[in-house]
Amino acid sequence: MILVSACLCGINTKYxxxxxxxxxxxxxxxxxxxxxxxxxxxxxxxxxxNPCEICxxxxxxxxxxxxxxxxxxxxxxxxxxxxxxxxxxxxxxxxNIKEAILKxxxxxxxxxxxxxxxxxxxxxxxxGVTAELLSKNNIRIYGEDDFNKAFERK
Length: 154
Fold this sequence. Notes:
This protein is an alpha/beta fold. Helices cover 30% and strands 19% of the residues. A 4-stranded parallel sheet has the order 2-1-5-8, sandwiched between helices.
């Protein structure tokens, strides 16, 4: 079983109430090979919600208590992002999940590159809170654009 960001399956969990449908990811769910989850919803955030970005670092820094996840209106959403990350990890462990396909650049699911916290579209190296936590727990992370090669062998 593969964990996937729910928004990639066409589920309207994105901050603006929409989704980021990726047909190839949806096909994995339809084939019973993938489990869709939204860490932000698992953390208690509603949909739609104000966009959030990690301010002062990356997902690693949020987990370490050195950075915060803030909304575009200045609301501190760090506790919800941490709760969602740990709830996602619980599901992953319960289902013996070893791989995940997550939404690129997200403050939860982004892996490799995320927004810099300025809400200006600038990108930095790093991972979102959930992606960082899953990776630290030996779950291999792919973005929606780079998972094809890995799953051709399956």
